[in-house]
Specification:
It is built from 2 helices and 18 strands. With 279 residues, it is mainly β. Strands 4, 5, 7, 8, 9, 10, 14, 15, 17 and 18 form a 10-stranded mixed beta sheet that branches. The longest helix is centred in the N-terminal third of the chain and has 19 residues, at 2-20.
Amino acid sequence: MRIIEDRRIQRLQRLRRAAARPMRPGRGMRAATALALLFAFAALLAGAPALAHYPWITVHEGEDESESFRISFGHTFPEAGLLRVDRLDGVRVVQPDGGVEALELEEREYHPLPDATEGAVMIVAEQKPAYWSRTHEGGRRASREAYPDAFSCSQSANSMKAVAGHGTGAAWQHRQGHALEVVPLVDPAGLRFGDPLSVQVLLHGEPWVGDVRATHAGHSRDGGHDYALTVRTDADGVARMVPAVSGYWLVQVHASEEYPDPAVCDRRSYNATLTFTVR
């Protein structure tokens, strides 16, 4: 996201310099064009959240059935950049019997999974809420309190869940109370390709109506903007889909709302992800 932002800001700065040059005879049309482009590009920046990055958990199964996981950050599934451990608010494993074990992660790419009693586990993590403002100086991790003249400001609150392992258990049934949460209504660990999958999306604990996107490893190689499935939830917040390909799958949801104090920020943005393997 930083590279994309830097390029946009550099282009914006060039347009601003062009618009600020004094008009000379015969150059009025070019200056007016530059000014129009400046406003158009500012509008483009304001509408760029579709390119925003989000986190998810990628589980790796070893040849001896040992497992590890990484916390990816970007929009190129299944692996993109890494989300640093110091940007996490908490990581835990829900065991098949419902027991919860907090994990202390080191700054590394792959993290070992603790042994499960028997059956599939669910890994749960939250990203620390963070501000992102688009300013004349570029993208900044700060609110309007630091940059009152920012083009736009958003606060992200992202969460992620992953079902890992073989067998059955109750881990997947446990809601985590995230502001935006994808709750599977069937056990993802038991899915075979062609099996139907239903999930319920909750925003602040209430059914949420909107688009749910899903994709699988290997589907898109053009930057991750192409999803295999997009379905809309019903009035109960339930989305129904059929993962028709074996492999590692991602279900992703984005929602936003007005920030409570407009002097601090404009929007509060939520991303929730659920990852699992279809056998």
